[in-house]
Write a structure and sequence with these properties.
The chain is 83% helix and 0% strand. The chain has 392 residues and is mainly alpha-helical. The protein starts with a helix and ends with a helix.
Length: 392
């Protein structure tokens, strides 16, 4: 049900990939100013991830998730009201804070309801829902944006409303039962307060490289769509189709590739290969942007993210204690959110000053370096905490 709620929510995830095109094509912002405005999404994401993790540990993941979903509804509706750079930046900042408070709470809910031995698959199932929604959303978004951009924002609002209602209906009773059990457990044994992830230097190092990976990967949501339109000369509908294809491919391959990785590869090797393949997918674009190359590149990117993103969440859960999972998930979420600040501005600036070829090849080189770092950092970080110690 968590995955189904995520599917409905993310089926409306058509705004983010088209925000850059919306601002350059509809509002006539410059590419550089568009990058600056998109960075406010990242600032809001950082604040939201921290706030969501902090509040989740205080009041529980249930209240944080439904509040985030329902408060997103009016904010999505307000986005088309603003027409200036400052106005769009302000509403995107606020909407991002509210929406991204959902993520650490949702991750904690997954660890709460999943069996310890199935935690990576549980994260993968949730990501499958995200990607299935992402395959539906942008494809529909490409069609709707060709008619009216307002439809994008209204569709996001409707999806968030449906997800919020469904979440409350299904989890309200279950959350009450869980609170009763937790109260009884607290009466039976004193719960030790968890350590702060902000003083966990091994985990901070890991999060730093997660941030670098995210800066590379999240070109998907900002500069890649601008590249598709300006350099590859794709229509908005075709941009939506190729993004929809990426979501469908992840849904098709994820569970199988995750099981292969769990069976035959270590966490370090899986993260190394996933990050390296993501870098290769971008580097390809520096040499050719024929439609076949775009499809092959996107296919590689999908395989790379399958072997990177769900395992990053698993490693975070393994590192966290029993009573500070929200803080750990929030801090790891911040490492991704920072990329939403850096990537749009840096990506559009490099593309405008030096061209997309330099951007894509540079992205590939950075990703290769991050892949090598993961290979050594992951065993160093989780050696002292095996999964049995953490999950029990």
């Amino acid at each position: 049900m968590l995955a189904l709620v995520m599917l409905i929510n993310r089926s409306g995830s058509m705004v983010l990939p088209f925000l850059g095109v919306y601002m350059t094509d509809h509002l006539h912002f410059s590419i550089e100013n568009t990058g600056i405005v998109l960075s406010f999404f990242g600032i809001g994401s950082v604040i939201g991830s921290w706030l969501g993790g902090f509040v989740t540990d205080k009041i529980g993941e249930y209240k944080v998730q439904y509040s985030s979903l329902l408060l997103s509804v009016p904010l999505f509706c307000l986005i088309p009201v603003f027409k200036t750079e400052a106005g769009v930046a302000a509403i995107i900042l606020l909407q991002s804070i509210v929406s991204d408070a959902f993520r650490p709470a949702n991750s904690v809910a997954i660890t709460k309801y999943a069996k310890p031995e199935n935690i990576t698959r549980a994260f993968s199932l949730n990501r499958m829902a995200v990607n299935l929604g992402f395959s539906i959303g942008p494809a529909l978004g490409g069609i709707l944006s060709a008619i009216s951009y307002e439809f994008l924002f209204l569709s996001n609002a409707l999806a968030a409303l449906l997800a919020g209602i469904m979440y409350i209906i299904f989890f309200r009773k279950r959350n009450t039962l869980a609170k009763i059990k937790a109260k009884k457990a607290k009466e039976a044994i004193e719960i030790k307060k968890g350590n702060s992830p902000y003083r966990d230097y091994k985990f901070l190092t890991y999060c730093f490289f997660c941030m670098l990976f995210s800066i590379c990967f999240f070109q998907l949501f900002s500069t890649l769509t601008i590249f598709y339109k300006d350099s590859a000369h794709l229509s908005q509908q075709n941009i939506g189709y190729i993004l929809g294809y990426s979501g469908f491919l992840v849904v098709l391959l994820e569970m199988g590739l995750v099981q292969i990785a769990e069976k035959y590869l270590s966490l370090a090797t899986t993260l190394f290969l996933g990050t390296l393949i993501c870098g290769l997918s971008y580097a390809m674009l520096g040499f050719d942007h024929h439609i076949l190359t775009l499809v092959v590149s996107m296919s590689f990117l999908c395989v790379g993210e399958i072997w990177a993103l769900p395992f990053m969440s698993t490693i975070t859960a393994l590192r966290a204690g029993k009573n500070n999972k929200g803080a750990y998930m929030g801090l790891n979420g911040i490492s991704f959110s920072i990329a939403f600040i850096v990537t749009p501005y840096a990506g559009t600036l490099i593309a405008e000053k030096f061209g997309f070829t330099v951007l894509w090849i540079g992205t590939g080189i950075i990703a290769a370096g991050v892949a090598a770092a993961f290979y050594f950092i992951v065993p160093w970080m989780i050696r002292e905490k095996n999964s049995t110690e953490v999950m029990h």
